[in-house]
Amino acid sequence: MAHFFRALKWILISLIMLPISLYLLLVIINLFDTAPSEQVKAYQAQIDYKFQQIQNIGDNNGYLIALGFDAPKNESATGKGLALIRSDIRFNSPAETTNTPVKRPDIPCLKRQDFISACQSEMDSSQLSELLTEHRWLIERYLTMQSKPEWEDVLFTDVDKLHTAYALILTAQKLYLLDIYTQASAGDTSSVSQTLNHDMQFWQNVAEHTQQLITKMITSSAMRENMLQGEMIISAMNTPIESPETWLQPLPESISSFDQVKLGEWQFGNKLLEKMISVESSEIDSPWYEQLFSWFAKRLYQPQDTSNRLANNLLSESADPQCSAFLSNITYVVYNPIGKILVCTGPSFDRYKQKFEKLEQQRQGLVTRLNPINNINADETSPYSNKT
Predict the structure, then answer these.
(1) Contacts 24+ apart (CB under 8 A), 74-81
(2) For 287, phi and psi rounded to 5 degrees?
(3) Taking the model in full, what pTM does it have?
(4) Helix and strand element counts for the chain (H, E)
(5) Residues of the chain by 3-state class (helix, strand, coil), percent to 5
(6) Alpha carbon 164 to chain centroid distance?
(7) Residues 6 or more apart in contact with residue 76 via CB below 8 angstroms
């Protein structure tokens, strides 16, 4: 019996020491990080250059208004945008913004996909006029942003700064489109095509120049809304209205390309991974098991190697081929396993690109339906045809 207990003791010790030994071996393998890759150096040089440009940011940049779009009615959206940029930790004297942001107005009919028809059916002309008058300042702010010829967004050091009020901006766009419809319904159809075209041009310009993935996808939603509601407006008029020029041309490749957002995604991904893998000392309320996991995981995480792999994946727009055989390739797993898991499980651009492919399909279908309208013949295939 004594031999049995002695054997059991050594078995238990072995079972305890084996994972400890394997962990210590992994820690030794992961003592040193890799050097920055050439792609990472290039990305960092671009970020440093853009930071210098930010300090001389001009009033012609529509991003300033977008960043501060939720500023109170009687305050400057541009001013709030500048304050948020200067609050980035790279500046020596951070500025604070204490204003309470404007919330998105709760207008039930605007939540519908066919919101113009919904608002028209739920409100009479006076109620519709009151609604637009009440939110005229929001429409004017949207028009001011739309009038800016440049778009240069900021790659914030702190990922928590990425809180542009896009929900409010898209609501302002809906109010703007609703305003176009009410004016056209009242007989002023002379500028319908021009205003829809100007709106589409603005969002195409943003899509072409933004370096933030979230902004890129917001442009997709905004352009979709422009065409969807624009078709309804044009089809509902009794007089023929020419289609906006931007609808008649295929979406430029620069608009559907994701090359511009790679830099922003690399910076965002790096900062996000840093936050995921570390528990800040100020977070004293973090559960003990999170702090314990963070302590163990940080020893198996190489930030520079992870950053290199993230940059490579973004450049090739595809995951590392070895990700598919992650567990079967021991030599791949042992170095920086946490970083590789995080990078391998990250999203690809494929599902985002599909949004822009559908956008071009929508444009093609729109042009096909509106061609007869432009020739003063009502199109029976249009879901918004004005049937009398």
Answers:
(1) 75/99, 77/141, 77/144, 77/145
(2) -60, 150
(3) 0.83
(4) 18, 0
(5) 65, 0, 35
(6) 9
(7) 68
CA 50 to chain centre: 19
- Please give the Cα distance from 168 to 155 (Å, whole number): 21
Q: Look-up: residue for tokens 């007089």? A: 239
Reported as a single tens digit per residue, the pLDDT across 3-28 is 666 777 777 877 787 888 888 888 89
Indicate the SS3 state at residue 379.
Answer: coil
Beta-ladder partners of 61: 150
Is 353:202 a contact under the CB 8 Å cutoff?
no
What one-letter code names the amino acid at 295?
W
> Residues near 74 by Cβ (< 8 Å), separated by ≥ 6?
none
- The closest of 204, 110, 193 to 151, measured between CA atoms, is 204
DSSP state of 111: G
Q: Confirm if 240 and 373 have CB atoms less than 8 A apart.
A: yes
Q: What is the pLDDT of residues 82-140, one digit of tens each?
A: 888 877 655 554 455 556 888 899 999 999 999 999 998 999 989 999 999 999 999 99
Tokens representing residue 169 in the block: 């901006």
> Taking a C-beta distance cutoff of 8 angstroms, is the pair 87, 96 a contact?
yes
- Packing angle between helix 213-236 and helix 350-374, nearest 10 degrees? 20
Residue (of 147, 258, 154) closest to 207 by Cα position = 258
Residues in the chain: 388
Contact residues for 172 (Cβ-Cβ < 8 A; gap 6+): 69, 135, 138, 139, 141, 142
Single-letter amino acid code for the residue at 66: A
Distance of alpha carbon 151 from alpha carbon 160, whole angstroms: 21
